[in-house]
Design brief:
Layout (H helix, E strand, L loop, with lengths): L2 H28 L9 H14 L5 E4 L10 H12 L20 E2 L2 E2 H20 L4 H5 L2 H21 L1 H10 L6 H15 L6 E6 L6 E6 L5 H12 L3 E9 H8 L13 E4 L21 H11 L10 E4 L5 H5 L6 E6 L7 H11 L6 E5 L1 H4 L9
Parallel strand pairs: 1-6, 1-8, 6-7, 8-9, 9-10
Antiparallel strand pairs: 2-3, 4-5
Helix pairs in contact: 3-8, 4-6, 6-7, 8-10
Amino acid sequence: MSKSATMKRLSFLCVLAVVLSCRSGVQNSELQLSAGNWDPVVRSNLNSLIAAQMDRGAYAVFDFDKTSIVHDVSQALWVYQVEHLRFADAPGHGFLDGVPDDAQKIGGVSFADMGAVLRDEFTQLSALRDAGKTLEQIHLTDVYKDFRARMATLLLGMDDVFGSEVSLLWMPGLLAGYTEAEAREVVRDAILDQMGTDKLAVEEWTSPDGKWGGTVERGIWFSPEMKDLYRCLQAGGITPYVCSASLELIVEVLACDPELGVGLPPEQVFGLRFVPGDKLEAEYDPSYVQTIASGKVECISALMAPLHGNADPVLVAGDSNGDVPMLTSFSGTVHSLIIDVGRRPESQIGRLAAQAREQGNKGRYMLQPNFASIRGRIDGGGI
């Protein structure tokens, strides 16, 4: 080999060594989860998974509410809308958008009658606001206390009466009447109002007559540990997706924000979708498989896997019975991460959590305590 060729080869090898050294530096400093409040075995397994799957075109799928974040972004929006009286088409909002018009009752009152009372009360509250009353003053009135307690009754009872498809439609359906741009503005305002460990709380909303109300979670928080996990996955060339049973628009506002959330591109966020239109309408888009329970599996298989050679996700994370199908369905999943928010032991997710405990987090299923509860804050699944 000529001297010139030898020098070129040495130069190439030197450049290659620098590149590999830099990549090794990325591995060591960027691809390892900080200890934080991770369970040590869970953290070790996640670090091993990231190292093994680095730059292989792999992907991970996360539920959002109570998994990626503490508490529920849709409920945080709901709390904000109730407290700030931010509903479109005031004062004529329906408050029962997406709820079947049938003879079902809640608390002995028909849904139609409940909606009529809410509309009347909201008209009164809007008049107080238009007359110059502050929100603090309005919140002291009996009509407001009854209004928010009735809304809490609907929130807590909707699933029992109609099932998850209706209850999951009703809460974001309170954005009905807004344009998408207006809705995103309301969602962002809600996130800013509700974000932080100091905002996490559980309250009793009760009507003056004691007939309506219940326990309401407020506040949301994106823990540094979960942000770190998203960051490490992306640094290792593993694509993280969100697959949520919240409205896609709502999740995007937080998940895609580089500071409040994790800066995901919108195309990596999947959630419930309403029918397209100039203004939001509480009706599911029939052309799209809604991301509820087994619908999450269909979404992953149809819209994520084809972008990754039809491979299974290497990591799936969830917290509830609605996440069980995607936590269990893919044979190629290396780890299914369960965030422990205190679900009932006899539930589907409770049984998976028990399996993770029995195996010491050394099998497919891993159980990670909710990060808020570790820090002594309100637990994600209740007190």
